[in-house]
């Protein structure tokens, strides 16, 4: 499941029943785990409507279009992918996760905002591609970050330039130039798409 944040529940959470064990940062062996304080640059990078502060800790609440939501504490952690180690990757540690997450133990944020997982990884240029099957289908998929990083892409793969919308940073937009059906091409009609 992919949404717009990376969050893992902790033991004192009001959560759905997940397949994997609950992650508890207080008892983990991580030496790089840091709780983000309020007023820090990482906390300030959260969208204002998503940011909550409690007892000096940076909290968040993210609502999704289907009514699902996650609330928790923002943290920094070091992540390793092959030979690449990323220090201070911002992620959420959910305490109250409700909605259509099924049995998924975490969310991976691929939105367009600054706190997106893909925008925190160096050398990707914010680019990624994926082919992910449904959680219930037992077949492999793939997720690649960057243009061409992590293996060759199939012949015919094209990259679309995205349109930036300062009022909705986490969403992706493409410019519409026209419509085509089969060999018939229709010019872009601004009156239809205003």
> How many independent structural domains?
1
User: Which descriptor suits the 3D outline?
Assistant: globular
Sheet of most strands: 6 strands, mixed
**Assembly classification:** single chain
The CATH level-2 architecture is identified as Beta Barrel
- Provide the low-confidence segments as ranges: 1-11
Give the CA-CA distance, first to last residue: 32 Å
Q: Could you please describe the fold and organization of this structure?
A:
This protein is mainly beta and 194 residues long. The chain has a single domain (2-151), classed as Cathepsin D, subunit A, domain 1 (Beta Barrel), CATH 2.40.70.10. The chain is built from three helices and twelve strands, in the order βββαβββββαββββα. Strands 2, 3, 4, 5, 6 and 7 form a six-stranded mixed β-sheet that branches. A two-stranded parallel sheet has the order 1-8. A two-stranded antiparallel ribbon has the order 9-10. The chain is globular. The chain starts with a strand and ends with a helix.
